């Protein structure tokens, strides 16, 4: 019988599939109902399958037990980050500069609020109540993560710039994904070893 983790993963996968549509729409891809349906169902299935495989690996390497949950939550956080960023770009048409860095900060902070709740209560299964000390630890490490995230994405967007043949909106999304991947290890280790130990 499936445990609650698989139900949660399926729900997260569904929302990842739905949220994927926002950045795709913003970079100019025409969104049809079949594409929307395929994204929602496909990510639901992919998240469940990936989670199952990582859970199997946890029989040999126990760290995969937590990492499998962290990866699923990370995917949701990444799509929340990209969705907020693309919504702000959609309404303002700003894809670089100081305002863009502000957009990246807002997107990062919204995704981190989601991250705190999922990681505390599901990934690391913290039994403690939310405390000021824990929240301060999370905030400090999140702030460092924010600086790393915004620094990387701003460097790629404003200093490196979109390579020839790649539109600024596509480059923003590529840069955001690179920044998200770059801080993944930082987040996992600090949350596991310090914040939710």
Key terms:
globular, 6 helices, 197 residues, mainly alpha, single chain
Give an overview in words:
By secondary structure, the chain is an all-alpha fold. The protein contains six helices and no strands. The protein has helices spanning 4-26, 33-57, 63-92, 97-123, 132-160, 168-195. Helix 3 (63-92) runs antiparallel to helix 4 and helix 4 (97-123) packs antiparallel against helix 5 (132-160). It starts with a helix and ends with a helix.
Shape: globular
Number of strand segments? 0
Helix content: over 70%
Overall average residue pLDDT: 90
Largest sheet geometry? none
Spans where pLDDT lies below 50 across 5 or more residues: none
Tally of DSSP helical segments: 6
Architecture blueprint of SSEs:
Layout: H1 4-26, H2 33-57, H3 63-92, H4 97-123, H5 132-160, H6 168-195
In short:
82% of the residues lie in helices and 0% in strands. With 197 residues, the protein is mainly alpha-helical.
């Amino acid at each position: 019988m499936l445990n609650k983790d698989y139900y949660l993963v399926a729900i997260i996968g569904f929302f990842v599939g739905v949220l994927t549509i926002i950045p795709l729409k913003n970079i100019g891809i025409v969104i049809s109902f079949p594409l929307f349906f395929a994204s929602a169902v496909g990510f639901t299935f992919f998240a469940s399958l990936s989670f199952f495989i990582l859970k199997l690996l946890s029989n040999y390497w126990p760290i995969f037990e937590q990492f499998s949950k962290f990866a699923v939550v990370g995917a949701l956080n990444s799509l929340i980050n990209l969705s907020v960023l693309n919504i702000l770009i959609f309404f303002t048409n700003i894809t670089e500069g100081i305002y863009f860095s502000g957009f990246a900060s807002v997107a990062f902070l919204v995704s981190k609020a989601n991250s705190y709740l999922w990681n505390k209560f599901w990934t690391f299964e913290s039994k403690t109540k939310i405390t000021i000390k824990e929240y301060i630890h999370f905030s400090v490490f999140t702030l460092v993560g924010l600086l790393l995230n915004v620094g990387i994405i701003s460097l790629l967007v404003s200093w490196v710039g979109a390579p020839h043949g790649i539109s600024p909106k596509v480059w923003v999304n590529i840069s955001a994904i690179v920044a998200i991947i770059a801080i993944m290890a930082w987040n996992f280790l600090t949350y596991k070893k310090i914040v939710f130990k």
